[in-house]
Amino acid sequence: MRVFSLIAACLLTSYAFGQVAPTWQGKFEQLNETLPTPNEYRTGSGAPGPRYWQQKADYIITAELNDDNQSITASETVTYFNNAPETLTYLWLQVDQNIFAKDNNTTKTETGKVKDSLAAKFAATVYDLYDYEGGYKIKSVRDISGKPLPYTINQTMMRIDLPQPLKSGEKVSFSIDWSFNIVDRNTHGARSGFEFFPEDGNYIYTLGQWFPRMCVYDDYQGWQNKQFLGNGEFALAFGDYKVRLTVPADHIIAATGMLKNPQEVLTKTEAQRFETAKTSFSAPVIIVTQAEATQKEKTKLKEKKTWEFHAENVRDFAFASSRKFIWDAQAVKTGSKTPLAMSFYPKEGNPLWERESTKAVMNTLITYSKYTIDYPYPVAISVHTADIGMEYPMICFNWGRPNKNGIYDDRVKERMIGVIIHEVGHNFFPMIINSDERQWTWQDEGINTFIQYRTETECYPGFQSRRGPADKIVPYMSGDKNSMRPLMTNSEQVIQFGAEQYSKCATALNILRETVMGPALFDKAFKEYANRWAFKHPKPADFFRTMEDASAVDLDWFWKGWFYTTDNCDQSIDQVKWFKLKNEQPDVEKKNVKVKKEDLASTNEKKFDNFNNGPQPLTLTETDPRFYGEFKSRVDDKAIIQKLDQKNIYEVTLSNKGGLVMPVIVQWNYKDGTQEIEKIPAEIWRTNENQVTKVFVKDKEVVSVVLDPKKETADVRTDNNVFPRTNAPSKFDDFKKKTN
Ligand SMILES: [Zn+2]
Fold first, then answer.
1. Which of 416, 409, 426 is nearest to 386 (CA)?
2. 561 CA → ligand 1 middle, Å
3. Does pTM surpass 0.85?
4. Dihedral of the CA atoms 654, 657, 658, 664 (nearest 10)?
5. 705: CA distance to ligand 1 center in Å?
6. Cα-atom radius of gyration of the chain, to the nearest Å?
7. What is the structure's pLDDT at 726?
């Protein structure tokens, strides 16, 4: 009576007979209206449209660093080009130093509880006890003729009202004079500020967000003038910079851009070494030695010197200044370009920094260039100062300090290399592929962390990457959903910043590359995204669309699951049934046999719930002529039965308990000790997102089935990934015992 059961098993879905169809959530439906409507500025393919435009802001800045009272006094002239099709009546600038002003909203909106005991340093921060006078002091805002311009400061934003509307295609210049007290990073944990060294009485200044910077105005949201609360970083326009920095004469400056007057600020020897470095591709050249820097720490010159830097097509300008700096540099080949990889560090960073920093900069430029675009800037700089990782165009500030005796373990070394790769990597995301950091953290942090992981893997064999491998995200993904946010959440509302916006996104992209798309399709599409949006302002949809456009892989389900929900991957292998053709002459003469419902349910579920009791019998019969419909031709039933004779037929039932739809990776462990891995695309879940049943035909006898054997899907529970379950002794266990 068991007729057509194989055919039926192949044709019918798992909830065919009376089972209630589980709730369908449309996980494979297209994102459609979730994404912005394509237009002539941003196309449906994810590329910039034929009428894409963006603003430009050029800066001429002169600044003086006062080493006696740790402050900056400066002036800037901004020339703003309105390339938008519309007229502007006011301009918005970011005045980020105001996050340290007394009445700032960050402190006001900070929440917390009183604990029994708290380190004084943290109490001072939490209860706002420092008497540091932070924030910008704006002395003047003037038009090009020197006439004062009306301006309004709203927390971290400044609006300048234009006396005449700025029409499309026009430009306007204005200047601002300002000063501010540089923050002590040790007390305020800031991205930018100074580090003081009590032993020699010197400072390292690392300065970012130090001048009023133009906000982005774009087709997507007009002015990006969302207030800076501390997490959402910066959205900035591209432009050219000419910056003159006056500092103590014995300071060395590292900055965005090329040094324009080396003969005025470097000694003859230093200038010569700098020239040599430009053609040294094999190893760094030391431009300022440790002995020279240590000598300057003692003499502390009072005179001043002015360094001039020029940078083109950058979205920001940062610098570091100290008499403590040792400086090394080497040339790097990335495609047709030969940028300089450079490091600036105090003796406190050695010997680690002279050994690893510039090498890490070089490895980053080479690997990122391979996956995106050739590094286009003339320099890439890693500066060492305590407890920070912070990025700017061409320059970044990094932690990783040996102990007092210069001793460090592998952990310190790997963390230091990791942060350098990460921060130098930010040159690509978001400094060049210039996404909106204030709105979307993952679009620079997550994407950057993914290529950081590629760099660590490819350049440092055995590197213990913290972020990227799928199994490393499991503790987070299996955690409390109340403290989770989807990746598509603004930075300020994120609770688990690092685990989510960095790790989860990097892991998702790693899974996308390795498990969903494969490296060839992924790498081409990812490079396409980088090329389309280099020196432009991409939004999330531009990334999502480009990855599909260039690969012919429908990824809407992936973006939905990984970027718009907090679902996790928990696949379970619920049941495997084993069938074999009845060992008898097939009865092909029997005609007009009808299939009944109960034929498909196995007669004794318990008896066949694992492999111990042998296969269930299966009978194939002659194909009823009605199944041919209008076709006149007939298949050879006997040949088909012959083909299936001696084969093992497995009916596998899988369920998706975590909600995230993912590919299914099945490992078959055979009786003869061999294994086979099969990858099934995520679309297996498209008609039933919760449970599916599928039939496999195998030559060999299977002793156990394992899901995701190499832990590449971040499956949060692996005990339900094995059939038969390993808590009960199975044939496979017996088999393992024998072979061990
Ligand atoms: Zn970062």
1. 416
2. 23
3. yes
4. 0
5. 40
6. 32
7. 79
